[in-house]
Amino acid sequence: MTDERSLFDFVLVVALTSEAGKYKATVAYQFPPPGSTQQQKNKKDIAAEVTQFCYPELEDTDSVELLLRSNGVNETFSFVLTDLDGSKRFGYCRRFLGKTPECYCLISFFPSFSVFSEILDIVEIRREDSKSSVYSFLKSVLAKNIPQPGETITIKTFSTKNTEPDVYRLTRCENDYEHLDYVTFDTLFRLLNVDDII
Questions:
Q1: Is 167 in contact with 155 (CB distance < 8 Å)?
Q2: pTM given for the model
C-alpha cells in the first residue's frame, strides 16, 4: 500500500496496440496492481487518463506510423494531474519507441523531475536485461520514502549479472525549482520580444 510519503504512488507500463487497423494505448502492467478498495478504483481511473498522455498522437495515423519507425528513440516527459480538490499528482514518463513501443509512467505526489529522471535512466538500463529486473527495481523504489532536499537515498535490488545486489543512489536536488533546470527558453525568447516577456 502506498501513501503520500512514498517516492511514487504507482507505476504503469502503457503499450501501443493495434486493433482492426486502429491504434490504442493500453495499460500492459500496473504496480502495485489495482485492488477493490475505492482508493484502488481511483488509481484505475487515473491509469485510464494517463494513457492519453503517453501517446497523444493516436488520432493521427501518420504520427503513429512515425513512432513505430523511430527505433531506438526514447523520450522523457512529465505532466501534472490536478484532482477536483486541487491536490496534484505528477506523472514522469519515458517512452521507448520502435516496433513495439511502450511507455513507463511513474505517478507520484512528489514533484522532482531530477529524481524521477534518474529512476527512469535505471529503468532503461534494467529493461535491456528483462522486465522482471525492472519490476524488481521499481518494487524496491516503492519501499522508499521521499528524500529531504539534498538527501541521498540508497536502493538495493537483485542483480541479473552478479551475486551481489545492484545498488543505486538517488539524490534529491536542494532547489525547489529544479524542474526549471530541464526547461529551455530559447524558443520563447526567439518568438517574443522583451516587452512581451516582462
A1: yes
A2: 0.81
Q: Where are the alpha helices (DSSP H) in the chain?
A: 38-54, 61-69, 113-127, 131-142, 186-191, 194-197
Distance from C-alpha of 126 to C-alpha of 166, rounded to nearest angstrom: 10
Q: 86: phi > 0 → left, psi -120 to 50 → alpha, else beta; which? A: left
Give the model's pLDDT for residue 1: 45
21: region left, alpha or beta (phi > 0 left; psi from -120 to 50 alpha)? left
Cell of 147: 528524500
Measured over the CA atoms of residue 110, residue 113, residue 118 and residue 120, the dihedral's sign is positive
Q: Tell me the HSE value of 109 on the side-chain side, using a 13 A CA sphere.
A: 14
